[in-house]
Each structure stands twice: as structure tokens, then as C-alpha cells.
Amino acid sequence: MKLLAAQPKLVELVQDAILAEIASGKLRPGARIIQEQIAQGLGVSRQPVQQALLVLRNLGVLREAPGRGLQVAPLDLDHIRNMYDMRAVIEGLAFRKAAERNARRAAEEGASYIDDGRAAVAASDMARMIEADMAFHSFIYELSGNPLVAPTMESHWTNTQRVMGEVLMRDERPRDIWDQHEELLQAVVAGDGKKAERLARQHIEQAADFMIDRLKREAARAN
Questions:
Q1: CA 82 vs CA 29, 118, 169: distances in Å
Q2: Distance between CA 117 and CA 142 in Å, rounded?
Q3: Are residues 127 and 192 in the same domain?
Q4: Is 180 exposed, middle or buried (0-12, 13-18, 19+ CB in 10 A)?
Q5: Distance separating alpha carbons of residues 17 and 8, to the nearest angstrom
Q6: pLDDT in tens, 109-124
Q7: For residue 141, is pLDDT > 50?
Q8: Is the pLDDT of residue 4 over 60?
Q9: Handedness of CA 44, 46, 51, 52 (dihedral sign)
Q10: Are residues 38 and 15 in contact, defined by beta-carbon separation less than 8 angstroms?
Q11: Which of 26, 46, 123, 159 is most deeply buried (CB count within 10 A of its CB)?
Q12: How confident is residue 31, by pLDDT bands cut at 50, 70 and 90?
């Protein structure tokens, strides 16, 4: 059997590192991606970098640059709206199933995710805020008992991280979503699937409105 050229985990780590640079604003839309510089900066060979860049291009985070190579793609507001519409449905399913199947575990473990999120907001740490938000939702996906939820949401989270980064960089006071998260958790703990689904959809729809409004304002100022 032929050996794999690169460990999938390494490719994933490289992908996460590149995405973090984009979400933090260090790599802006239109910035060229130089494989050699990324490989050197991360201390890895070019092969996992090349594979990670291919994944990000397929997800729409990167695009072909004039001439050759890749560059950071601009954010597409229509795509963002469509993405959040899909998220609302899938998140609703995940929260409903979590309430129906794993209310007890939600009660035992959920509070720590809320605490981590609030600590990140208090510290105004953008990377921690994004990480805490993803961790909370990933916890719910696990509680849903549906193994298809997390991989289905993976591509959505790749773009969501970038959107969150763009908005958080420009907000003097980061939007605190953890009261909403606590209310969602309480619905799951109570085993109220219908309420959990309704609140989850509402949560994602409000997030979409907030993010798109902020991005539209930024675009208007730029013009």
C-alpha cells in the first residue's frame, strides 16, 4: 500500500493556520498567497500547504490570482446569506436532537462552554471568542447523536470564522452572544426539543442579520 504523502491532521492544522491569518485581518482580500512563505513560517513542507490551499480554494476562501497562484477572495454577501440560511436549518436540527437525546449530559458539561465564551468576550480576545463559539456549537452537534451534522457543518464554519473575524476586528465592543447561548443550553437541558430548535434558528438568523449589516456598513465606508 502506498504511503500517504501528508498526514491529514497536518493538512488540517495548516488550513486552520491560514484561515486564522485571514480571519484576523493579517491576510486581506486580494492578498497573494505565497506557498513558500507559509511553509517556512509554519515549519512544514510545501506539500501540506499545497493541499490546505486547495481545500480553501474549493471552499471559496481563496481564488485564482491574476497571472498565477492564489489570493484571498473577497467576501460575497449573497453567499454569506445563503450560508446562514443553511446553518439555521442544520443548527435547528442539532439543538432539537440534543435536547431529545442528551439533556443530562448538556446539564453536566454545558456550563463550562458558556463560562469560556464569556471569559473570551471579557478579555476582548477575538481568537478565543471565535474558538469558544465553535466549541459550543460542536458540543451540541455531538449531543445531537447525528454523526452527519458535524461534517456537514465543517465548510459552513470555515466561512463563518472569516465573517466573524471581519466583524469582530471592527467592533469596539464585541457583540455578546452568550446570553443567547445560555438560553439555548437551558432549552436543551430541559429536554424541550421544539423550543431548542426555534431558538437555534432565531439565533442564527439574528447572527446573519448582524454580520451582514456590519459588512455592508464597512463596504459603504470604503466606497
A1: 20, 28, 23
A2: 18
A3: yes
A4: middle
A5: 14
A6: 999 999 999 999 999 8
A7: yes
A8: no
A9: positive
A10: no
A11: 159
A12: very high
CB-neighbour burial class of residue 93 (10 A; exposed 0-12, middle 13-18, buried 19+) = buried
Residue with cell 436540527: 93
DSSP type of residue 27: S
* Cell (9 digits) for 218: 464597512
Contact 90, 160 (CB under 8 A): no
Q: What is the chain's Cα-based Rg? A: 18
The grid cell for 111 is 456550563
Residue 2 lies in a domain: no
The answer to whether residues 68 and 84 belong to one domain is no
Does the structure show a pLDDT above 80 at 37?
A: yes
Tell me: do 68 and 154 sit in the same domain.
no
Distance CA 74, CA 89 (A): 26
State whether 105 and 211 are in the same domain: yes
Q: Cell 491576510 appears where?
A: 27
Record the cell numbers describing residue 108, joined without a space.
453536566
Among the listed residues 47, 184, 21, the one whose alpha carbon sits nearest the alpha carbon of residue 103 = 184
3-state secondary structure of 125: coil
Is residue 25, in this structure, part of any structural domain at all? Answer: yes
- Count of residues in the chain: 223
Select from 127, 207, 126, 208 the least CA-distant residue to 168.
126
CA distances from residue 12 to 6, 7, 9, 42, 122 in whole angstroms, order as listed: 10, 9, 5, 13, 29
